């Protein structure tokens, strides 16, 4: 019986490892947050609760109301990013692309119900936003979903695939980044939440991150282009 359990664990580990596409370099070792850091200058907050559990990075609010960003130590220009995500409903987060330390970036939304897979700007405008209209056709509710993001060019062209299906492919009309930046960090966002009232938070609803909710990330890998 012990041998069978060990064999099953080995097969699961092999399957998990095989999910990273060929030619990609892991950004997360599955054990700890080596190679990542929490931003100390973002308006999202500076005490987010990011930790590793069962081979995944977990994002949660602790204390409740405080968000923040977990950022790669490395900086990237043109790349393809691959990761698998499992998100609870009423937990607002995102994947930041070419982010600076303060969290100015293009963002792919991660929020259910809502605009998961949509392209928006975080503290910068986006000249050409995008909506993942076909997400519902491929989304696995309550399960892991793969995201593959390609970003290239001084005037960025960005493409998103969810579970291997292209959601959108857009080219911006200009470089929207502060100072025309052409590189930055990858970041995972745990959105801050209004603790007392939407009025006190300038309109941010209390449900932007419900107590106890989490986002989980695994098999995070990148390929420089």
Q: Helix count?
A: 2
Q: What name goes with the CATH superfamily?
A: Exo-inulinase, domain 1
Helix/strand structural class:
mainly beta
How many individual domains? 1
Helix content: under 10%
CATH architecture: Sandwich
Write structural notes for this entry.
The chain is mostly beta strands and 225 residues long. It has one domain: Jelly Rolls, CATH 2.60.120.560. Helices cover 9% and strands 37% of the residues. The chain is built from 2 helices and 14 strands; from the N terminus they run αβββββββββαβββββ. The chain has helices at residues 2-18, 135-138, and strands at 25-26, 36-38, 49-53, 56-60, 68-72, 79-87, 93-99, 105-110, 119-122, 145-152, 157-162, 165-171, 185-190, 215-224. The strands form 2 sheets. Strands 1, 3, 4, 6, 10, 11, 12 and 14 form an 8-stranded antiparallel sheet that branches. A 6-stranded antiparallel sheet has the order 2-5-13-7-8-9, with no helix packed on it. The radius of gyration is 17 Å and the shape is globular. The termini are far apart. Mean pLDDT is 88; it is low at 1-18.
């Amino acid at each position: 019986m012990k041998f069978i359990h060990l064999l099953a664990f080995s097969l699961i580990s092999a399957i998990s490892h095989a999910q990273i596409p060929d030619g990609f370099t892991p950004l997360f070792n599955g054990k700890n947050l080596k190679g990542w850091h929490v931003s100390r200058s973002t308006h999202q907050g500076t005490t987010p609760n990011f930790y590793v559990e069962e081979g995944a990075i977990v994002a949660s609010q602790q204390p409740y109301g405080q968000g923040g960003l977990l950022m790669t130590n490395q900086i990237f220009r043109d790349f393809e990013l691959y990761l698998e995500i499992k998100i609870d409903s009423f937990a607002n987060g995102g994947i930041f692309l070419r982010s600076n330390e303060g969290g100015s970036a293009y963002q792919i939304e991660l929020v259910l119900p809502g605009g998961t897979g949509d392209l928006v700007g975080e503290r910068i405008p986006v000249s050409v936003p995008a909506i993942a209209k076909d997400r519902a056709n491929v989304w696995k509710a309550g399960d892991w979903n793969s995201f593959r993001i390609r970003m290239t060019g001084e005037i960025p062209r960005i493409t998103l695939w969810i579970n291997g299906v292209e959601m959108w492919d857009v080219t911006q009309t200009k470089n929207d980044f502060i100072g025309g930046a052409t590189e930055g960090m990858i970041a995972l966002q745990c959105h801050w939440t209004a603790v007392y009232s939407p009025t006190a938070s300038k309109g941010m609803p209390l449900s932007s991150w419900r107590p106890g909710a989490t986002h989980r990330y695994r098999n995070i890998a990148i390929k420089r282009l």
